[in-house]
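Shipment paperwork, digital attachment
Item: protein structure file
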Amino acid sequence: MKEKYTNNVALFKALADPNRLMIIDMISCEELCACNILEKFEITQATLSHHMKILCDCGLVNARKEGKWTHYSLNDAAVKNIKDFIVEITSDTDDCICKK
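Attachment content:
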């Protein structure tokens, strides 16, 4: 049972940063090149790479190389899973941990 909680820890850690939340918001509209994301922030390319690695490692963001550039998009399946998880843990259901 604890597995469903531990499986989501990396996602919540990745979302626990305002810059990463803004990046998620940006790429929710369309796939973006790292250079386009970087234009909106006052951070270095290395810092952006660090943020993107965290978002990709947790599975929330997909990265696609095109020449020397990397393009980022949301992983729709991961977004659906996190939405479903939040609904599950905030709803009174028969399999709720409080009833066990």
